[in-house]
């Protein structure tokens, strides 16, 4: 098996260079003609490395809930005929595989977390920056933003979100401050 060079990733590529790319390929690709699911395709960095090791008979299903990421991946991976791109969330894997008529996969890749591109892109609103709307939607087709949550959720709901998803020790105190502040004037986020 040949392991490709990471130098092929363009400096113009706004998505990050895949982390542990060589190791992912070495451990994931057990059958060059197998079926592989990438549940967090992103910009397609890992996919490009993996697809170079697969035969044309292999199937690679790339899933992402971010249409912008899928578009970038579509461009990067356009030379590979054996890839199927799916605009969904990885927690829908069972349904995705059923629709693709796939009963078994040989490998699954989940590169979990927010991409550096999403954090760096002001229009995505994943970072707190002056003058930038707080959005934080992985799928921009969803209508509810982080700003909407802060403006509309009850103190109890905010506490639950901060505690369960942010593992925030001071969740109740933060939620109370937000609710108190927005009672005085609308939040500008």
UniProtKB/TrEMBL annotation:
Its EC number is 2.1.1.199. It is an enzyme of class 2 (transferase). InterPro entries: RsmH, SAM-dep_MeTrfase_MraW_recog, SAM-dependent_MTases_sf. One of its GO terms (molecular function) is rRNA (cytosine-N4-)-methyltransferase activity. Keywords: Methyltransferase, rRNA processing, S-adenosyl-L-methionine, Transferase. This is 16S rRNA (Cytosine(1402)-N(4))-methyltransferase. GO terms for cellular component: cytoplasm. Pfam families: Methyltransf_5. GO terms for biological process: rRNA base methylation. Belongs to the methyltransferase superfamily. RsmH family.
């Amino acid at each position: 098996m040949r392991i490709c060079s990471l130098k092929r990733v363009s400096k113009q590529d706004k998505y990050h260079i895949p982390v542990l790319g060589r190791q992912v390929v070495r451990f994931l690709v057990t059958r060059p003609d197998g079926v592989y699911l990438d549940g967090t395709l992103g910009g397609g960095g890992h996919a490009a490395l993996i697809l170079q090791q697969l035969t044309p008979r292999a199937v690679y299903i790339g899933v992402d809930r971010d249409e912008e990421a899928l578009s970038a991946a579509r461009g990067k991976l356009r030379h590979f005929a054996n890839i199927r791109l799916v605009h969904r969330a990885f927690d829908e894997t069972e349904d995705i595989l059923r629709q693709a008529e796939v009963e078994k996969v040989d490998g699954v890749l989940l590169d979990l977390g927010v991409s550096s591109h999403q954090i760096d892109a002001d229009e995505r609103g994943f970072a707190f920056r002056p003058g930038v709307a707080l959005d934080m939607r992985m799928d921009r087709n969803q209508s509810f933003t982080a700003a909407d949550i802060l403006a509309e959720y009850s103190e109890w709901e905010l506490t639950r979100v901060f505690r369960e998803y942010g593992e925030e020790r001071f969740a109740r105190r933060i939620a109370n401050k937000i609710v108190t502040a927005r009672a005085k004037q609308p939040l500008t986020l």
